[in-house]
Design a protein that fits this description.
The protein is of the alpha+beta class. It has helices spanning 15-18, 25-31, 68-76, 118-127, 131-134, 142-155, 160-177, 256-261; strands spanning 3-13, 44-48, 56-60, 78-86, 102-104, 107-115, 184-191, 196-202, 211-215, 218-222, 233-235, 240-245, 248-253. Helix 4 crosses helix 7 and helix 6 (142-155) packs across helix 7 (160-177).
Length: 262
């Protein structure tokens, strides 16, 4: 599985979390401690907000630990809200278009997990993406499909958390129709430049790891703690939506299965 982090707070250089700490995201790309495999070398990406509404983005297929451009960018770019992700592919090609985070308009999205039986339901899942957004699909991952489905629901007036639940519910319904027995596991983050919505959920009892560290001047959400201040890092409860805005963290129950029952 992949590893990622999302930062919101006073502007800092990306390297403060991507490269410098003892268990930075680059370190996790080789030595992840809470993933199925310790190596996440199938590409990486960073996305950040600056002076424009839409985020900047840099993605590459090389492993994060061997890309000197990532170190240079992380040392020079400072942001109040940014995403970073290292990828362990789960069935789709190692291409730049398949690397996270994904960008559309002012939104950033990244995901860790997998839709069980994605190859079986992929065509039907993609068919749910409206034409107005399907043209924005450049890769082949389940993650990007979920992102575009959530954006479609937000365009209809849903709140981000509801939209993410609806996208996962769509996938679950198709999995059930196809007789897929594999689980759907999801840790994900969605941002609009001001607010981060992070979820930790799984259709079984094994959701991907996700932690929150809230300090007076910032909040970080990460697959694994990136530094030695372990007392700050709190595991996000299973089946939870965390909304981070203005330095505060609000937690709410999150369950796409309730949408199916309804």
């Amino acid at each position: 599985m992949c590893r990622f982090l999302a930062y919101s707070g006073v502007p800092v250089f990306l390297e403060d979390f991507v490269a410098s700490p003892c268990h930075s995201l680059i370190h996790q790309s080789l030595h992840a401690e809470e993933a199925k495999t310790g190596t996440n070398g199938d590409g990486f990406g960073v996305g950040w907000y600056g002076d424009r509404p839409e985020p900047g983005q840099y993605r590459e297929v090389r492993p994060a630990w061997s890309d000197e451009n990532l170190l240079s960018i992380a040392r020079q770019v400072r942001s109040h809200l940014f995403f970073a992700h290292v990828r362990a592919a789960t069935g789709t090609a190692t291409t730049r278009a398949n690397c996270h985070p994904f960008v559309h308009d002012r939104y950033l999205f990244m995901h860790n997990g997998q839709i069980g039986g994605y190859g079986v339901i992929r065509r039907r899942l993609e068919a749910l993406i409206p034409d107005s957004l399907y043209s924005a699909r450049t890769g082949a991952t389940d993650s990007e499909a979920l992102f575009l489905l959530a954006l479609a629901r937000m365009a209809e007036g849903m709140a981000p958390g509801q939209a993410l639940a609806a996208a996962l519910s769509d996938a679950l319904a198709l999995m059930e129709q196809a007789g897929v027995r594999e689980p759907l596991r999801c840790a994900a983050a969605l941002a609009d430049g001001e607010t981060i919505h992070a979820i930790r959920w799984s259709s079984d009892a094994s959701p991907p790891s996700l932690y929150v560290c809230a300090r007076p001047d910032s909040v970080v959400v990460a697959s694994e703690p990136v530094d030695a201040a372990r007392e700050c890092w709190q595991a996000l409860p299973c089946n939870t939506l965390a909304t981070i805005a203005g330095g505060t963290v609000q937690l709410a129950a999150f369950d796409p299965l309730l949408r199916q029952a309804a």
